[in-house]
């Protein structure tokens, strides 16, 4: 029996709420996906705190169906790059539709993924289909892990690190390279680090609040 305990919630004044919300919005407006990383080392204790922040996410029946693998070993990063580029060559060479490739043109991406070796660290997020046995059911796995991944990206940005959400498809090679059990499947690959001095990003605009928020 888990039992219950007091919440411990701090109710803030409206002026403070607005100031905190505006400050966080200003930070997150500057978050961009980065494909040009500096090889400079990063403080891994900061990364650990960001991962722990992600692990505070809500999950179906509190099953916490996620595993975060932090990769810094150069040899392992090379294996991941080689396997990812093999899948990416198939993707760009015929697996992707013409429309998909056209939509990707503004990002100037291709099958070569040097950032997988250059970035000082990778975080591979795995989703747990179930616990150690199939009888230990997990619920709303995609939703739960997606929320945790979003919190991880926000935490890393707030801490001062650049990120990329990389999803080579299929991603099964990550399970093999990282020796993960059969109940886990790769969900997201996130290179992290500082942006390169000459880093460029696409000149894109976000949808406005009026385009994404509907009031009833």
Give a brief description:
The protein has 216 residues and is of the alpha+beta class. The chain has eight helices and four strands; from the N terminus they run ααβαααβαβαβα.
Helix percentage: 40-55%
Instruction: Trace the largest sheet across and list its strands.
Output: 1-2-4-3
Mean pLDDT: 96
Radius of gyration: 19 Å
CATH architecture: 3-Layer(aba) Sandwich
Please report the first level of CATH classification, the CATH class.
Alpha Beta
Q: Overall 3D geometry?
A: globular
Query: CATH homologous superfamily - what is it?
Result: NADH Oxidase
Helical stretch tally: 8
Report, as a whole number of angstroms, the end-to-end distance. 40 Å
How much β-strand is present in the residues? 5-15%
What does this entry look like structurally?
There is one protein chain. The chain has a single domain, classed as 3-Layer(aba) Sandwich (NADH Oxidase), CATH 3.40.109.10. The protein contains eight helices and four strands. The protein starts with 13 loop residues before the first helix and ends with a helix. Helix 2 runs antiparallel to helix 6 and helix 3 packs antiparallel against helix 7. The relative contact order is 0.21. The chain has a four-stranded antiparallel beta sheet with strand order 1-2-4-3. The chain is 42% helix and 12% strand. The chain has 216 residues and is of the alpha+beta class.
